[in-house]
Request: fold
Amino acid sequence: MDALKGKQTDTTAPDREWKFSEILADHKIRDRWEKVRQYFFLRESTYDMSNRCNIKCEGCYYFEGDKQFARQNKDPEAWRELMRAEKERGITYVVLAGAEPSMVPELCEVCYQEMPLGAIASNGLKFIPESIQYKIHISAWGNDETSFKIRNAKNMLGRQIENYKGDPRAVFVYTFTRDNIDQVYEVAANLAEHDCQLTFNMFSAPVGYDGSLRHTADSLDKTRKTMIDLLLKYPRNVLFSYYNAVVHTHRSGLHDLYACSYPRMNPSTDIGLGRSFRQYRTDLSWNRDVACCVPDTDCVDCRHYASGSAVVTARLFRHAGDPDRFKAWLDYVDTYLAIWVMGYDKGDNLCNHLVAPPGHEVF
Ligand code: SF4
Ligand code: SF4
Reply:
């Protein structure tokens, strides 16, 4: 794997002080900045759609904690009202998640009618009607043998591809655990053959989890190399960047690197996610004290792709001190928008080497 050879930027201060206008003098940087900043209006909240799932996976964060016991509100009009109220308080983007949203397509439909931008997290085994034009994130946790072992589902990838090949809504999300790193090659080859899009997630342990999926320093390093290797091998299919790889495989989790802005870790209600984000349960209740996009995940171990999408993109100013770091951040935001927003096409990455998160080393 040669992907990690070449230039690596460490945390030493930039060679000089850069004004933002000087950074934008590079037309590639300016064009990308203009492209991504049009989406700064996005304000997300997340919603548990159903307390049922058609499979049972080891390490599932939904079936941790007490949110799984919330009563399920199945009334479409109650959901419509909720979406309207959400719009009123400034929410422009919804993430429909736990347990399995495809179990309640009629509720997803209502959400889409009221709130046209959003994404659904699904295991991909039950097709979500095309009338719901949200991005659909289909979870893959290894090859079929592993899926059978951990998720108790047979021929999982084949069934997911059958449902979603050629569907512009679909992005397959491969979650790296300690044990499935090499298996991604088989999965990526299969997805590329069917012209599917793929991005990467990191297993982030639920609170109290003590099983074998949790990452170690060695598995983080190996995962980083593998991510970059696949980014170079399948540039048309893999939605990712060098900086994504650094951020999500760093020895420190996202909270240590960037100070998580979700309410659960952020007492401030003045601006941003701390002010607007809510995580609704299936009974349409919410609780600020536990609100984040992956509730019941252990914050120290949190490297989740959904968390990074909000936490890293919110740190514009910390990345705007020199061109290299700003390019890395733009790649991250460009990747995130391509994964989460219908109709947004990812551009070529601007920064093709490892750049350290501000104030940290590269590993
Ligand atoms: S498919 Fe998702 S919600 Fe269902 S058990 Fe697995 S991780 Fe949990
Ligand atoms: S689990 Fe992740 S996203 Fe949630 S509060 Fe902790 S660090 Fe933030």
User: Anything to note?
Assistant: The domain at 8-355 is CATH 3.20.20 (TIM Barrel).
